[in-house]
Each structure stands twice: as C-alpha cells, then as structure tokens.
Amino acid sequence: MNEDIILSQKAKVSTANEDKLWTAPYVTLISLGTFISISFYMVMPLLAKYAVERGATIPAAGVITGMFSIVALFVRPFSGIISDRISKKRVFIAATALIGFSLIGYGLSTGIASLVVFRIFHAAAFSVNGTVNLALVAQIIPRKRMGEGIGYFGLGHIIATASGPALGLYIGERYGLSAVFLIAGTIMLSVSLMMFMLPYTEQKRKRAETSKGETTGKDRTDTRVTDRTGLRITGRTGLRISDIIAAQVLPLAFFGSVFSMFNGVIGSYLVLLGEERGIANISLYFTVNAVALILVRVTAGRVYDRYGMSAVLIPAFMLAAVAAFFIGFAKALPIILVASVIKAFAQGSAQPTIQAECIRMLPEKKSGVATSTYYLGADIGQGIGPMLAGVIASAWGYEVMFSTCAGIFLVTLLLYCGRLYMRSRVSRG
User: Fold this and answer.
1) Burial 82-110 (b: 16+ CB within 10 A, else e)
2) What confidence tens digit (pLDDT) does each residue in 25-84 have?
3) Three-state DSSP class for 224?
4) Does residue 248 share a domain with residue 149?
5) Per-residue pLDDT tens digits for 4-17
6) Which of left, alpha, beta for 56 (phi over 0: left; psi -120 to 50: alpha)?
7) Would 207 be classed as within a structural domain?
8) Residues 6+ apart with CB under 8 A from 70
9) 341: helix, coil or strand?
10) DSSP character for 308?
11) In a shared domain, residues 169 and 287
C-alpha cells in the first residue's frame, strides 16, 4: 500500500517536471535570443546609411540591404536539415559566431565589395541561426505548452524591436557607425560563448526519451528508412525533399506569410504615408504596437494550447483586415495608434500559434525542417509584400494598397475556413 502511494507521488512529480516550462535551458535560450535580436535591430536601420558612407549610391545601398532577404530565401530551406542532422546546440554556436564575425567585418569594411561579402555571410548565418534557435527551444518546451512557450520566447524579439534601433542610433551618433557594427558583433560572439553554458544536451534528452519508450516505432532513429512507395532507403545521409521542406506545414507557412507580408508593407510605407498626410509622430505606431504585442503574447499561447488553432487564427485574420483598413484611410495619429493595437492582437496571437502548430505537426526530430518551412513562408511574404505594395501605391495610392492588404486577409480567412471544412468532411468519411 505504502509502495503504491510512493509510486503515485513519484509519478505526479515526474509529470509535473515534464510539463515545467520555466527551466534553466528555456530561460537561457530566451535571454540569448533577446541579445541576438537586439544585435540585429541595432544595425538594421543603419546599414543603408553606412553603405552610402562607404561610397555606395542610394540604389546600390538598397540592393545591399535587400540582399539579406534574397540570400535567406535560398539558405532557409537547408537550415532545417542542418538543424535536424547535426547537433542543434553546435549549429547554434557556429551560426551565432559567424554572425558576430560578419558584423565585425561590416565595421572594418572600407569599400562596397567587402560589405557585399559580409552581407552574404550575415544573411546565411542569420537564417540558420533563427531556424535552429526556435527548433532548440521547441525541444525544451513541453509539447502540451508549445503555444505558451513559443509565445513567451517571442517576447525577446519584441523587446529588441523596441530597443535595438534606438540603441544603435545612440551609439552611432556618439561614436560613429563603425562602432555600432563592432559592438553588435561583439555581442554575438559573447552569445556564442555563453551558449556553452546551456545546461542541456540533446544526447541526454534522447536517452531519457528512449527510456520512456517515446522513440519507438516510426519515431525511432534508424539507419534504414522506408518512403511512401515502400522502397527502402539505406542510411540517413541521403537528401530528400521532405528533409528540406515539410509538405504538411506548407499551408500554415502560407498563412504565416500573409502576416509577414503585412509587417513588411507597414515597415516600408507607414512613415511615407505619414509624411504624405502630414501625420506627425507616426513612429509612435511601433512603440504602441510593441507594448501591445507583449501583452498579447503572454496570453495567446495559452488560448491556443487550450482551445486549438482555429480559436486564434479566425479572429486574427479578421482583426488584421480591420487594422489594414484603418491604416489605409487614417488621417490622424489616434486612428493609426488604434490600428497598431488591433494589429498587435492579430499578429501577436497568430504568428506564435502558427509556429507552434508547425512544430506539433511533425515528430520532434523534424523540428528543424518544420521551423525552416515556416520561416521560408515568412521570408517570401516579407520580401514580395513590399515590392507588390509599392506598385499598387504608386498607381492608386495608399488607400488602395492597404485595402488590398485587408482583402488578402479576408481571402486567406476564407481559404482557412475552406481547409477546415474539407478536413472535417474527410474525418467524417
């Protein structure tokens, strides 16, 4: 009897530990991820100006800054397989260090050619780092609390967007632009060194999962893999499409790309809209949006974990459409700020939800390709959105441009609801 009570108590303690979110590795990764984001946003608004100082024309400076998304688009699909086949911790350390050396290279550059080279290295390393960082966090977060865990993890990014540009501008004005890149690079190298302190090893986790029987059957790591055709593939070194892009995740990556598109449009044209309409202090949009995002992130993940993805995404698409419409026809700052709050509720709930669902759809050992597929959609949306929006704005104005964004969200909502309907019909047989 006593033995049964003891075993029951041990089981409860074990379950509680497995569902614990705020572990030392989790806190460590949130902290390091915040420093990485701060370093990125310190230099992001200054690179074009820095390139001009080094002899680039304004169009050339635009090309140098835009190269980042192009390189990321090509590297991102392979970052997942790198993450899944190599120790995530080691890849994280290497990619972070390469970012640091690239940033220092910016600061030491004396011409355009070296800036281009370091820009390529920076973009490639950052793409891998972002994928591995989220995949590593996903391994630590309890599966039942994935939405909540990723929501909290994203707070570091929000803090960085609010503080990084201001910090970079302050350092640049006081010590010169080169100092900004050198300091940012030093931060990244420090993060790479601190990563060695992470109290987590993938080997230990794998042994723990094996002891609980969680890696049996299809999830077992084996040197012989069978594809859908029934053909046996020997070894794990062969490269397949499924190792690069997770087909199951593509619809969700598309939904996420719509929000990234809207982010890119606002980041590119909101200030110009304010200048055209004489709206002063329009930059307050970003401050209000960041504060609202923090509040939303804290709760949205819990809603997803408890009620499912639809409870988050359906209202998010609607709110995003409303925010886009408000911005498009706003003539005064208060309307812009209201829109920033509405957009924060949409974006802050939708993006971590989609990320968490992508990770949950695949086995844990495929978390890398799940995150890279999601980010691939984000890269496409972030890159294409501003370009198409610019064409629309130049032809018909900002009202039509932002109304088009609102329409895209509503169409995406219909596609999502159609997807739910088709899946329900399939499940009913």
Assistant:
1) bbbbeebbebbbbbbbbbbbbbbbbbebe
2) 888 888 888 999 899 888 877 787 788 888 887 677 767 776 777 788 788 777 767 766
3) strand
4) no
5) 544 454 444 444 45
6) beta
7) no
8) 123, 383
9) helix
10) -
11) no
